[in-house]
Amino acid sequence: MCYNMLINKEYDMTANKVTVTIPNELKEQLISLKRDLKLSMSAIYKEALEAYLEKKEIEKWENGAKLASKNKEYLRLCKDLGNKGTELYEY
Predict the structure, then answer these.
(1) pLDDT band at 27 (very low <50, low <70, confident <90, very high)
(2) Smallest Cα–Cα separation from 2: which of 18, 21, 16, 24?
(3) Pick from 6, 78, 80: which is nearest to 49 by CA?
(4) Does 88 reside within a domain?
């Protein structure tokens, strides 16, 4: 199967064809969803890929935070900065 997919929904409006291999059962479910939602297969794939990439990005940040929370030097620095008596401001 070949479907068009947007590269970046915000900036780049060019599209590339992508070939994917999926089990028949999954294809049947996608076709049913396509009919129910009146969407193209490209739109379904695009939305699924965007959600997957967002999920993976969040997982990377969560893993980074877990690693940082186990780093003694990082924790000491956080404690030192927190004890300076200065306020943090959002800009």
Answers:
(1) very high
(2) 18
(3) 6
(4) no
